[in-house]
Amino acid sequence: MDLKLYDTLTREKRVFTPLDPNNVRMYVCGPTVYDFAHIGNARPVIVFDVLFRLLRHLYGADRVTYVRNITDVDDKINARAAQDFPGLPLNEAIRKVTETTDRQFHEDVAALGCLPPTVEPRATEHIEEMKTLIERLVASGNAYIAEDNVLFSVPSDPDYGQLSKRPLDEMIAGARVEVAPYKRDPRDFVLWKPSKPGEPAWPSPAGIKTPGRPGWHIECSAMSWKYLGEMFDIHGGGIDLVFPHHEDEIAQSRCVFHTPAMANYWMHNGFLQVEGEKMAKSLGNFVTIHELLKDWPGEDVRLQMLMTHYRQPIDWIVSKTKDIEHELWTWVTTLVQTDAETHGYSRAVRKEPPSPSAALLEALCDDLNTPEALAVLRANYKSARDGGFKEKNQFLMDCQFLGLLRHNKLWVHMQGVSGRNTRGLPIAYEEARKLRISIANNLPELRREAELSLAAKGLGAEVDADGNVTLIPLTEATKNIGARIEKLIADRNAARKAKNFNESDRIRDELAKMGVVLKDTKDGTTWEIAR
Ligand code: AMP
Ligand code: ZN
How many A from CA of 27 to the centre of ligand 1? Predict the structure, then answer.
């Protein structure tokens, strides 16, 4: 089946032909890590995850390289670091901001059911590659030095502007935002700039004495080059990146490598607004992924995103998630209730990558038509509900192919409450729901909150491997919390022994979020609840 993709550069839907079918290569611009990612940032992550899954199916899981960068050097990061950690040296403060934000981002997108990309390069670890490109651009006359900046000379690239196809006067007007007297042409953009004292700085390229830092656009040209080569298959990102970011990436890469267009297919997801307006903190409609994950299973959010074709704009209506929750609940109820009769088919497919039905594949191969894919899924649901193992299994695999209904957390979608030796369970309905969500979305803080509010009602919770929550009287529950803490401490000790300090720190932080303080003594680790 032919895969067809819409290419922003040629403005047409074309059959996708990889440069090398043994190594299909995709680059997607990732987040700038200075704050919680918002629901708009989730859009490219989910959209290109669906494409990644599709490419892996079509070409083989080990024949697709997906690179998504992390921008960890940026003025917004510096500003946030100075604001949040005024007492610390800037570099240390920046590390704190980027490490925390980076971890939150990964937790968020994992809860949304996104596979990790093959490589996630960080800008600050690729300064040498950026300097190499900058020096080559200076040597070829495509860049020049002015007041310790290196600027790309837009007039030196006669093909500049083909991606965004903006008229010259509009590009000039856009570029005027950043007025700099030393620019030879108002459209020229920064490849390297000098750092002020205290700001992150590296030895500069091209003989410049003042230490400096790279511009944003050169990052992506350097990192895609390192991991994907001079020319690759797909370059993606949100529509807001077409100009100037992607236009500038193309100009840089084309002038260094003398290639036609950096990538063969340029894909852009449409913009997302919330409740009818552009998202803004001042409007009170700024929705972070993290906040949504406190209220809904990540899969609900993913499904809501997939209901709109990726090139269309989305108006995100928070209350709509309720309908989606209901739909997923219907699906899961049917599957789980019949699980016993069908010999636990839901587990049987876990080891193999899910294989989509022909109709689902056809929808996705048509420029990732996810609304059509969901129509297929709904039709298949009816056959699954009324059919036997084969139909149920296919339905489940179609869901999983889209990154939905991951099995170990299936129970998050169930709306009932069960219990042992407990009366009055309905009073804890909301708490039990929050607990299930916190487990599925991997949010220890929310889990603790839910456990505490359950405890206030004299209830505790037992959670099995499928995320199924059973409420139990508190005395037994207390033992459970204790056992969970002991297990985390054992995991942390194992991580420390293996010198995996990132993991051991992460567990310590997780425990801290639960309100548990660790004391490492020579006889081992003890714990107590912080007061
Ligand atoms: P940023 O961290 O702002 O550079 O954005 C990271 C990714 O999210 C880029 O691919 C952006 O195009 C995308 N993005 C940011 N805001 C939105 C939005 N409101 N709707 C859709 N995509 C967005
Ligand atoms: Zn980029």
Answer: 15
Ligand number nearest CA of 242 is 1
Nearest-ligand number for the alpha carbon of 245: 2
Residue 41 CA: nearest ligand 1 atom is: 8
Q: What is the pLDDT along the chain (531 residues), one digit of tens a residue?
A: 899 999 999 999 999 999 999 999 999 999 999 999 999 999 999 999 999 999 999 999 999 999 999 999 999 999 999 999 999 999 899 999 999 999 999 999 999 999 999 999 999 999 999 999 999 999 999 999 999 999 999 999 999 999 999 877 777 776 655 668 899 999 999 999 999 988 899 999 999 999 999 999 999 999 999 999 999 999 999 999 999 999 999 999 999 999 999 999 999 999 999 999 999 878 888 899 999 999 999 999 999 999 999 999 999 999 999 999 999 888 887 776 665 554 455 554 456 778 899 999 999 999 999 999 999 999 999 998 888 888 888 898 899 999 998 755 666 777 666 666 655 566 788 888 899 899 889 888 888 889 888 888 888 888 877 777 888 887 777 777 778 888 888 899 999 999 999 999 989 888 887 777 788 887 777 777 665
Residues 321 and 274 sit within 8 Å (Cβ to Cβ): no
Ligand at shortest distance from the CA of 32: 1
Pocket test for ligand 1, best of 67, 120, 240, 304 (most atoms within 8 A of CB): 240
* Residue 112: strand, helix, or coil: coil
> Do 7 and 14 meet the contact criterion of CB atoms below 8 Å apart?
yes
CA–CA separation, 477 vs 471, rounded Å?
A: 8
CA gap 451, 518 in Å, rounded: 20
Q: What is the pTM of this model?
A: 0.89
How far is the centre of ligand 1, averaged over its atoms, from the C-alpha of 77 (Å)? 16
461's enclosing H/E stretch is strand 459-463
**Ligand 1 in reach of 32 Cβ (< 6 A):** yes
Please count the residues of the chain. Answer: 531
Q: Distance, CA 40 to ligand 1 centroid (Å)?
A: 6
